[in-house]
Amino acid sequence: MFNGAVPQKDPDESNPEWRITVNPAAELVGSPRLRALIDRLYHHQKLLTDFDAKQILSALQCMDPTAELLLPLLTVLSNATAYPSNQLLMREFRLTNRVVEMLPDSKHWPRSTRVILLQCIANMAVSSDNMEVMKLALNHIVSRLTSEDEMEVVVAMQALTNLSINIRKEQIPKFVPVIPHCLNRLWVRGEVNLNALRLLVNLSCCPDMVPYLLGNKSVSGLLRILDTDREEVLIRAVTWILCTTSAVDALNLTYDRIAEHNLDPFHNPSHTLYFSIYGPKGREELETQARHLLNHANKDVASKSARLLETLANVPPFPTAGSHLNRL
């Protein structure tokens, strides 16, 4: 048997078939072929093919973050997520994985590219079949809530809303840091922030999240969210308070049960969300608002307000100062 090394000879420049491309994807990036692919998918074609998915993956694996074609390529991918068959194809060809893998390094990217990558992940998170892959991105998405760029925060909230449809018990610690950001952004320039409210609804739909939620610092004028002419806000506001109250009833939550989650430095109960909703003044205001909404033209609002009043009746009154003396 011959074990000697075969001598390597230089490619014959006159024979192009000799040429070997070390990284075929590098040839694709920035090429007219990639531009044509982006143009076709952006303007003329809704559904990806296997070949399209392979080409996009090859480009994403080697493309520089500053490359001019990265932004339109991610935009095409983000738009393509609107179709379930595309989501399936992206998963099969590991495009979903690749997009998630790009997230940690993207915080140093140009702003537009950074935001569209986050939007792509938010859209991919719509598919419940992507949750196993998406959970790897959770910590990085939460960290974007502290961004100084408002658009980045908004898209991060959208992504977290899609990821919080069904919060598993082991995921709760990852979602807990999200709560103060939502509450701090609930009012923006005198208007209810719908993005924050949507996320709060999902968080409150997980009963085990509710003690953490109620232990957070409250928002000034919290229950004014029920006093609005915007139905899209009102239906979510009623849903949020109803889900929270249902969890308080089901888990028999009193202040004593949520005290350990009180984030106030002096553990003052009156600074908590729990006190704002179920303390004497808050509860009275909530009952008044709910009774008023029983006659609302929107049947969903009226029905949920009725359920809220029924559930609220099961929640014990907040102990007033000196109430312990009555038991002596």
UniProtKB/TrEMBL annotation:
Entry GO terms, CC: mitochondrial membrane
UniProt topology in membrane: Single-pass membrane protein
Record carries keyword Cytoplasm: no
Entry keyword set: Membrane, Mitochondrion, Transmembrane, Transmembrane helix
Cited InterPro entries: ARM-like, ARM-rpt_dom, ARM-type_fold, Armcx_regulator
Membrane-crossing segments per the record: none
Keyword check for Signal: no
Protein name: Armadillo repeat-containing domain-containing protein
Lineage: Eukaryota, Metazoa, Ecdysozoa, Nematoda, Chromadorea
